[in-house]
Amino acid sequence: MHNITKIAVVFVLALFANSGGVLADVIKIQITKFGAYSKEIVHINVGDVVEWIPTNEGHNVEFLIAPQKDFLPKKSKMNELYSLIFEEPGIYVYGCTPHLNTGMLGLIVVNTDFHNVEHVNNLKLSPVAVSVLKRMLKKASSMSNAKNISKSRPPTQ
Ligand SMILES: [Cu+2]
Question: Is residue 4 included in any domain, yes or no?
Fold first, then answer.
C-alpha cells in the first residue's frame, strides 16, 4: 500500500513538471520564400517546442535575447530544420543572421512573461530592425490578452 502511494505521488509530480499537466505543443514556423518567418510572434508555455522549417534558401535562426541573458540558444545552420524546447519564461528574440538589419526577426513569449523587456529595448540593431521589434513587442502584449482564446483553436499547419 505504501509503495502504491509513492508511485502515485511520483506520477502526479511528473504531470506537474510538464507545465501543469498540459501536453506540450509543437509550433511550426516556416521560413518563407519572401524571406520572413511565417509566424513572427508566438505565445507558448514552458515545455513547448518551436520548429523552424526552411522553405527558402539562405536563412537561419540566431537568438539575440533570451530570459537567461548569458544562455542564448545556439545559432542554427543555414537552410536547416531547427527545433528548440523552451524551458524559461520570458521573451526570446531571434533573427536571421544575414538579414537582421533588414528586420527579419521573430519573437517568442513564454508563459506571457515580459520580465526581460528591458533587455529587448536595449538591443543594438539597425533602425529598421528596431522599428520592427517595437511593432512586434506592442502586438505581442496585446495578443497576450487574447491568448486563452487563441489557445483553444485547433493547431494550424
Ligand atoms: Cu534571412
Answer: no
Residue 17 lies in a domain: no
> Using CA atoms, how far apart are residues 95 and 105, in angstroms rounded to an integer?
4
Pure H helices in the chain: 2-17, 117-121, 127-145, 147-151
Q: Tell me the pLDDT tens digit for each residue of 92-109.
A: 999 999 999 999 999 999
pLDDT value at residue 13: 46
User: How many domains are contained in the chain?
Assistant: 1
Residue 78 Cα to ligand 1 midpoint, Å, equals: 9
The pocket of ion ligand 1, defined by CB under 5 A, consists of 59, 96, 99, 104
pTM of the model: 0.79
Position 2 in a domain? no
Residue with cell 539597425: 126
